[in-house]
Design brief:
InterPro entries: 2-IPM_HCS-like, 2-isopropylmalate_synth_dimer, AIPM/Hcit_synth_CS, Aldolase_TIM, LeuA/HCS_post-cat, LeuA_allosteric_dom_sf, LeuA_bact_synth, PYR_CT. This protein has helices at 34-47, 61-73, 87-96, 113-120, 124-139, 157-169, 186-199, 219-228, 250-259, 261-264, 275-286, 307-315, 343-352, 359-376, 381-391, 438-449, 494-523, and strands at residues 12-13, 15-18, 51-52, 78-84, 103-110, 145-150, 174-176, 207-211, 233-236, 266-267, 337-338, 378-379, 399-407, 414-422, 427-435, 455-463, 472-480, 483-491. It is an alpha/beta fold. It has an 8-stranded parallel barrel with strand order 2-3-4-5-6-7-8-9, surrounded by 7 helices. Strands 13-14-15 form a 3-stranded antiparallel sheet. Strands 16-17-18 form a 3-stranded antiparallel sheet. The longest helix is centred in the C-terminal third of the chain and has 30 residues, at 494-523.
């Protein structure tokens, strides 16, 4: 299909229904405390989702309070009250969402025979009657009712149509046909939506929603197929979190629609610049790391190691990128220096930190870089800067961690002392600090030594060997003036490794700032 705009076709708006705080939280080990739920909901509002499903109000007092607070605060977003086909659930959802400016009830019941037989232990006739009664009961309180026939894609089509007809007759305004087990293929999903919409009585009078799980890796593809079949709302989660293999990924769906909008003729209200911050916030709140190769928000999504790719990117970004990471709030660290990198990329990276290497020195830097890359696979910026300093007999690192001592215990606050060398002044100074943990105490010391307002954003620890002499690799990410910097270090002492990685990241921030200042002075 050619990438040309069909001017005769009107662009269709797809509603984004976010269920990160309900279905997403059902990921094993990913529960979010009520206070953090409210913080994430505020960010989802900034992201531009149309509907938020903040939780399952009947499940606990804390969950009820979170749903209630989110309903009160986010007056510009529609709130979905989730409930089983039970009066107690409906009452809780109605009460928790009563202060929302716009709200709906989201009622669900299983439709597949295997669920009816083994889970509900009810007949089709009984399920049909329950659905009628509970939708009618919920309609007393709200105008918008979303009905979900759980496990639709493994259900008898005629029974699904019976359920949908009954739901519409009782006042349902949105019909959700979920692929609860991530079982269907895209063609099957498209045909399902088209047939239900055209064959059910009143089927053309309601809106349709898709809720697809990712067990076979098809959640996003199936959501696009549902749109082709007539769905105008897609239920998603940030980072694709959710039961088992998760749900349709919000960021993947949104960026497919944005990147290929001239072909798809679709649009959403998602604010691209908030995508990465939302992803990071959910990952931290759930303690769920993001896979390196995760599309859109993974560490490797916009990073290139191949020398051919790097050379092309340095000449024109569009050679190997179809999206702009900075538009999504992702800092531009697209080139990863590894064994496949070329001289051009290495010289360019050093120049970004104000380190100029003559051509005759570049050969030695490159040779030492390749030797380290063969050993480690990836060479970080701080390691490259150190190689350049050793080759040119200079000390490019503005600050050097000389010594570290930590007093740890089981009850009291930890006390740390560090010695840091200021390379520009040639002096070493010692600093002390306290924290609830040893690393926090160390970071408080280092922050006194290095005058950058760097936020310690993230720490990754990797074991590189086993046994008593094992080494650990620390990867620290900081934020300074809205830019992210990453430092790494390897050491037997994991606290020392983390401290060195933090100093390395801070050095990058300092050097970047110094280079910008030099450019501004030159311009003046």
């Amino acid at each position: 299909m050619s990438e040309t705009t069909n001017t005769a076709q009107e662009t269709k708006k797809i509603q984004i229904f976010d269920t990160t705080l309900r279905d997403g939280e059902q990921s094993p080990g990913a529960s979010i405390d009520p206070e953090r739920k409210i913080i994430i909901a505020r960010q989802l509002g900034k992201l531009g989702v149309d509907i938020i499903e903040p939780g399952f109000a009947v499940s606990s007092a804390g969950e009820f309070a979170a749903v209630q607070q989110i309903s009160r605060e986010l007056q510009h977003v529609e709130i979905s009250g989730f409930a089983r086909m039970m009066k107690v659930d409906i009452d809780a959802a109605v009460k928790a969402t009563q202060d929302a400016a716009r709200r709906r009830l989201h009622l669900f019941i299983s439709s597949s025979d295997i669920h009816l037989q083994y889970q509900l232990r009810k007949t089709r006739a009984e399920v049909l009657q329950i659905a009628k009664e509970m939708i009618a009961y919920g309609k007393q309180f709200v105008d918008e009712i979303e009905f979900s026939a759980m496990d639709t894609t493994r259900s008898d089509r005629a029974f699904v149509i019976d359920l949908v007809e009954a739901a519409i007759a009782e006042g349902a305004t949105i019909i959700n046909l979920p692929d609860t087990l991530g079982y269907a293929l895209p063609d099957e999903v498209e045909e399902l939506f088209r047939s239900v919409r055209t064959q059910a009585r009143g089927g053309e009078s309601v809106r349709y929603s898709a809720h697809n799980h990712n067990d076979l890796g098809l959640a996003v593809a199936n959501s696009l197929a549902a749109i082709r079949g007539g769905a105008t709302q897609i239920e998603v989660t940030v980072n694709g979190v959710g039961e088992r293999a998760g749900n349709c990924s919000l960021e993947e769906l949104a960026m497919i629609i944005e990147t290929r909008k001239s072909v798809l003729q679709l649009e959403t209200g998602i604010e691209q610049r908030e995508i990465y911050e939302t992803s990071r916030m959910v990952s931290h709140a759930m303690h769920y790391p993001i896979a390196y190769n995760k599309p859109i928000v993974g560490r490797n999504a916009f990073q290139h190691e191949s020398g051919i790719h790097q050379d092309g990117l340095l000449k024109n970004r569009n050679t190997y990128e179809i999206m702009d990471p900075e538009a999504m709030g992702i800092s531009r660290s697209m080139i990863i220096l590894g064994r496949h990198s070329g001289r051009h990329a290495i010289k360019h990276r050093l120049a970004e930190y104000g380190v100029d290497v003559a051509d005759k020195e570049l050969t030695e830097v490159y040779d030492r870089f390749k030797a380290l890359a063969d050993e480690k696979k990836i060479v970080t910026d701080d390691e490259l800067i150190r190689i350049a300093g050793e080759t040119t007999a200079t000390q490019p690192d503005p600050y050097v961690l000389v010594d570290l001592q930590v007093l740890a215990g089981s009850h009291k606050s930890r006390i740390a002392s560090v010695t840091v060398k200021n390379s520009a002044e040639g002096e070493e100074r010692s600093y002390t600090g306290m924290g609830e943990g040893p690393l926090e105490a160390v970071i408080h010391c280092i922050q006194q030594a290095i005058p950058v307002a760097a936020e310690f954003e993230d720490l990754e620890m990797h074991s590189l060997s086993t046994g008593e002499d094992a080494h650990g690799e620390a990867v620290v990410t900081i934020v300074n003036n809205g830019e992210r910097y990453r430092g790494t270090s390897i050491h037997k002492d994991i606290i020392f490794a983390a401290a060195q990685a933090y100093v390395a990241a801070c050095n990058q921030a300092v050097m970047t700032g110094n280079k910008r200042g030099t450019k501004e002075n030159t311009a003046v």
